[in-house]
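Can anyone check this?
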Amino acid sequence: MEKKELSGSVALVTGGSRGIGRAVAHRLATLGASVAICGRDRQALEDSAADMEKLGARAFFHLAEVTNVGQVSELVAKTEAALGPIRILVNNAGIGLFGPAHEKTEADWDRVLNTNLKSVFLVSKAVVPSMIRRGAGDIINISSLAGKNTFAGGGIYCASKWGLMGLSGCMFEDLREYGIRVSVICPGSVATEFSGSRPKDPSKALHAEDVAHAVEAIVTQRPGSFLSEMHLRPLRKA
């Protein structure tokens, strides 16, 4: 018999139309959650939502730029109007831009930091008040092993992910007394359409479903405990 551990729960996954976000959204739908996704590609969002509905899940999608506070507020309000209070937030939206930091522009910096870090601040800030009122919730931030390590050409990207690690840890300390769990997942190279970098050997890379499995482990963890930080690596090195 298929498990439905998340029946009655509502999840919001940013960047949920493709790659890791799509895999996570579909895993949550399989577990019985009602799932909202956002992104900037309407057709991809429609396709992802339709696939979740085929699984028997309630699905909602909304075009949104998660670096814009007004659009974030609208996203959260429309999600809760359509599906109910958000119990699970997966901050997945992110971009990659690589090369020596001294060769990049201010616009490059703003684009990466706003997408990978500011968006987590904005979406979490919009969702947290209702979680506090209900005394429960899971916030899962998708970071990277680049948030733990440095490498040539990774200056702006690593800065965004190191910042995300610090934000995630402080959010947990601020929110734990309200019954809200904040977790961070740090994958290595994942074989997706992620912009800017591809694994050297996709057969020896992680897959989006590996990250989705980690999200499942977090949201199905016993209520009195939580998985604060997960590192995902491929079994074999490329």
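Reply from J.R.: I decoded it. Residues 184 and 229 are 5 Å apart (CA to CA).
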